[in-house]
Amino acid sequence: MEAARLTVQDLGYGGLSFRELAKDVGIKSASIHYHFPTKGELVVAILRDYTAYHEALLHGIETEGADGGALLRHYTDMFRRTLLNGNRMCLAGMLSAERNELPEGVGTELVRWGEMNEGWIARVLGPGDDGDADWRRHRARAIFAAVSGAQMIAHGRNDIATYDEVIVAYRGSGLIP
Question: For residue 37, how many other CB atoms are within 10 A of its CB?
Fold first, then answer.
């Protein structure tokens, strides 16, 4: 599953082949088909694991007791580390670009990924941030979109400095605390 995730982060859903994946990990493609009859089922499993891993990671840093600004620096660093790993994109970001070609189950998991991110950011913004839950939810979505977009632009340019510059600009403008 790790090899499949890395492939999708690099080449997208369309670039994932059971035959190539089997060759990469040294097994027969029938072995992959035994556990995941379709590519869609494999990608759903990968995306579920990806979401659960990052949800636990974000919960872990949240329990460290840092303020919202520090927590959001950890958050933007998470996306930055993905770029540093071979100029890969966030798994969900890469899949979102192919949304119209994906099986329904993958689309459902993409929505779950987004909701998890937005929910975490809204919690981090906290009740002291204007006290308005709707406002926090909308701002959380804007932050999630901004960070994802910064990653996409940097990926397209194969330039981590672009990501860093955009994130600094977002912080300077107040979009990201």
Answer: 10
Which residue from 17, 8, 168, 148 is spatially nearest to 88, judged by alpha carbons? 8
Task: Tell me the C-alpha distance between 101 and 95, whole Å.
Answer: 9
Give tens-digit pLDDT for 127-160: 655 568 888 999 999 999 999 999 999 999 999 9
Residue 51's contacts (CB-CB under 8 Å, 6 or more residues apart) are 92, 109, 112, 113, 116
d(CA 145, CA 15): 24
Which residues, at least 6 apart from 39, have a Cβ–Cβ distance to it below 8 Å?
Answer: 13, 16, 18
Contact in structure between 79 and 90 (CB atoms under 8 Å): yes
- Per-domain residue ranges for the chain? 46-173
| 44 contacts 109 by C-beta, under 8 angstroms | yes
**pTM for this entry:** 0.91
pLDDT per position as a tens digit, 48-88: 999 999 999 999 998 887 888 899 999 999 999 999 999 99
Using CA atoms, how far residue 142 sits from 21, 41, 81, 124, in Å, is: 36, 30, 21, 14
Yes or no: is domain 46-173 CATH 1.10.357.10? Answer: yes
